[in-house]
Amino acid sequence: MSSLAADLGDRFPGREEQVDQLLTLLGDEHDPAPPCLFAYGPSATGKTAVIRELFAKYDTEGRHHAYVSGVECFTPRLLFERVLNAWAGHVPSLESRFANYARCENAVDFVNCVRDLLCDRQDETHYIVIDQAERLRDRGPMLLTLLLRLSELAGASISTVLISNVVWDKFRPRHGGAPDPIPVFFSSYTKQQMLAIIERDCPEDEPPKFFLTFVDAIYEVFHRNCADLNELRHLVAMLYPKFVQPVFEGQATRSEFTRLFKLCQPYFSAASERLYLREISTSEWQKYSAVASAATAPEDVTRSIYQMAESSEGLDLPYYTKFLLIAAFLASYNPTRLDAQYFSRAKAPTKRRTKGAAAQNAQDAKDRQQLLGPKSFGIERMLAIFYSIIVEPVDSSVDVQIQIASLVTLRLLTKTSAGDRLDGIKCKCNVSLESIRAISQSVRFDVERYLYNFA
Amino acid sequence: MPARQPSATDADVRSIKRAVLGRLYGRAPLPTLVGLDAAVDAVHTLLRQTVASSEGNTALVVGPRGSGKTAVVERALARLGEHSGAHHVVRLSGFVHTSDRLALRDIARQLLATQDLEHVLVGSFADAFAYILGLLRTSRGAGGPVAPVLFVLEEFDLLAQHPKQALLYALFDVAQSQQTPVAVLGLTARIDAVDLLEKRVKSRFSHRQIFVHGAASLEDFAQIAACALRVDAARDGPVADALALQFNRRVADILAAAPVAQHVASLFEFGKDARQLLRVFAPAVARISAAAPLPDVAAVEASVAMDAASAKMQVLAAVSLLELCLVAAMKSLVQAGCCRYNFEMVYSEYKTFMSRHMVAVAAGGVMRIYKKPVALKAFEALVELEIVRPVLPLAAAAEGPATAHARNDLLAGSAAAARAPKEFRMVQLMLDPGQVVELVAARADVPTVIRRWVQQ
Predict the structure, then answer these.
(1) Which residues of B are less than 8 Å from A273 in CB distance?
(2) B416/A contact by beta carbon, under 8 A
(3) pTM of the model
């Protein structure tokens, strides 16, 4: 047991305490195990990795534990049948026509099958490990209670291990039948632990200390907006080749960190956010990004990065459709009472300032439509706005109606009235302000002038 | 006095662990049921009357969660089994048998033990049930006495919620009509379980209720823990007498330690749940080994502290600074009187604050204002932790508590096309302002400006 603990401690730095807790609670094969264990903690703290590895080594035969995922098993039947397959050591194959070990559609069948399967293995504890256990809450009110009390119901020694990043308070079923499990908390990694883990990612031919300095610099900047280990590893893996390239080209030596950072600057500023948001995919980055070297001008590098990230912005619509979209945006975000003021061709009389204008403005600051989201509007209003912002006369109105239909299909407009109504259709605009600005720039239309109360 | 650990053999330690952990985890019954003797006697009398005198009896055992209802019934059944004739026991549970059909199938399986059940389950519930009892009678031989059947129905209130209560009606009907000697014991945690019954079912019920209360006093409650932890050399397998004595002395020390006694007292005041009480001692007992065969007081105290700690605060203790700023922005929106807000409003509040103050970070440099997509990713991380939950529109909330429970639809692309894009969906922070202040106070790396902002 202690060799297993040492082994896992080597594999997973920073998780020694949790491994120790788990191994103590599981004990030897013949010790009773708790009816339910709950491993919780923020994401990317190694819960699934540690528990899977632990069970793989602890349960040498493989027939005493069953690992299921709450996401995959979206009906109780899938969960029950997988657990029985794992405990019986049954693998669906061509000969058995890919049938599972037993057919179990409801809880009664499951409890009976478990009782039959385990009646001759009375002394050994069996485990069910459920990952993403928060999904089980939706699968029926009794499923969670059943799994937690399976030991009593089936009369065998069964232990359920739940893994989740949501705390137990949100799991407790309302009718109160589920006993509280023994919790095992996986805390977030500290800075030292994170550096120790990422250090293992160092490529073989690079000096570790050099790599570590780079990782340290990235961590300092990056951990303010994201404390997630996986994201940090991804960023380090993508940016390190660019950082170390000047050394291979002979423009700087390994000891000149400042110069290397300066050469790599365009990548850090332009790329780190886009890589983090996955606007540029990993494969795109590795194939198309320009190599960092003193020879490449910084502007070229920046431009190539922006080009890679631009593909999502390309809303290539016909001319009138762009104006229709702008009109829809204005209809969604401007109040109806101000339409005459903004959009009528004739000179509308200016409204008289009322006394409470200042107070009105102060209240508007919090309730701005920009913050509340798009309102729904009638199609007629949008068409009225459209015809007033188009400068030249429009030939046929049939095209316009077809364009509206295609905008709805592209989900740039959302229909809020019932699906089968043919008249009085109401829609909402689904496009963000930045896209509308880009679109109106492309048709040389000044949309800012028509927006009311936008920051 | 330094704790000197005595030496022990592996076999001793294994026996102790098996016995004590078995009791702590609820896998083995406690040796004595504290304060429940009257209830055990009542149940035992009832069952004995059915078995010995072939009467039909019905009763309801009512008691809060963890008060020992199942233990009482099992103890009575065990006592009965010693000196009575043959009888069948059928166990049903409201968790598992979620419809009358399933319950009937399981009754047939438990009573008849035949695999071919399909020809049995035809017709209405009452017909099928009568057929099963008829089969049971004939299987014993034509002239022999009929063996009584004892039904133990756990979670009786859930069984009473099946449509038409066919199962309960059939059972109570047989108990009253005395064709087959049947005893029906329902176990429930609801005091008003009798009111859930329909009129025709209630009239066949004997209205006999046996109440199982929780422990009457703090001493009794603590006695439950002592009873579960103490090792008896004769009963708990081969254990050296000296070791058992020292173990029991250590158990007395543990229960007398101040944090443990306080925890037991607070559990007694809160709910008197025996399972919750016993769970706390398990990690310390699981840790014993041949080198250190006595449980450590410090380990029990650590387990008590872990139980009392707030899990939410633990998980939030290491969120990134940006996520903390978003939580602080939500708190200031709530304090300004706005009870419904969405990501756009939170982000604009965050931007207003950051542009007004220069936030210097501990490692040097200034914390910049993050762009909206980055802030949205941090916001979604908070939603995943369920610190921020979507506020359902009123129509959906009125549909029923079942649909409103726990499903986090903010991130999912829901089929309701009328809802806004995800930045505009209304959310709610699940922490109150005091907890946010506590969260910020517990961290050392938060810049002073943000700390002051939160503490306003």
Answers:
(1) 371, 373-374
(2) no
(3) 0.88
